[in-house]
């Protein structure tokens, strides 16, 4: 299938607007938007600079807001509307030590999804995927070497980190007609969430 790549700093509204406009000009319509820009290196919340926190909030919240706003403008004019999918994080709904600004930004994205998921209906559906720990090319920054990744995954009820393609599968569902009545919602793709620490090991999956 035809594809194209465009460089842009999505933290800047003008660049986000130009990106979306270029895509519509080339392909004619914009049916699906997945807001996947994000992330944060670990930092000391007590001593982190204001500039650092502003950049983390910008990349994890403002990029989605800017792209969604412009995408909605085009989708509202289309006969079949469109679907917007925001990539959230479990850090939005639980403590996020060493990534406080990231967690705060993702919490804001939850509300933004719920709000636009109502406001932009019936033409445009907006949903969020609450993502847990994922094996990516940057996993070593948080989990260490392969043994660290394995041990981290063993603490998740499903027994491993997610693969990025599995998160993509959830996005495909939310963008499809199968989710035609779903908007303003969050799907948790976190492998069962956090294993309660008070449970004894005999209750856990002994096969891991």
Question: Secondary-structure blueprint of this entry?
Answer:
Blueprint: H1 13-27, E1 32-35, H2 50-75, E2 82-89, H3 100-119, E3 124-131, E4 134-135, H4 140-143, H5 146-154, E5 162-163, H6 164-175, E6 186-189
Parallel strand pairs: 1-2, 2-3, 3-6, 4-5
Helix pairs in contact: 1-2, 2-3
Textual characterization of the structure:
There is one protein chain. The chain has 208 residues and is an alpha/beta fold. It has a single domain (13-193), classed as NAD(P)-binding Rossmann-like Domain (Rossmann fold), CATH 3.40.50.720. Helices cover 41% and strands 13% of the residues. The strands form two sheets. It has a four-stranded parallel β-sheet with strand order 1-2-3-6, with helices on both faces. A two-stranded parallel ribbon has the order 4-5. Helix 1 runs parallel beside helix 2 (50-75) and helix 2 runs parallel beside helix 3 (100-119). The longest helix is centred in the N-terminal third of the chain and has 26 residues, at 50-75. The termini are far apart. The mean pLDDT is 90.
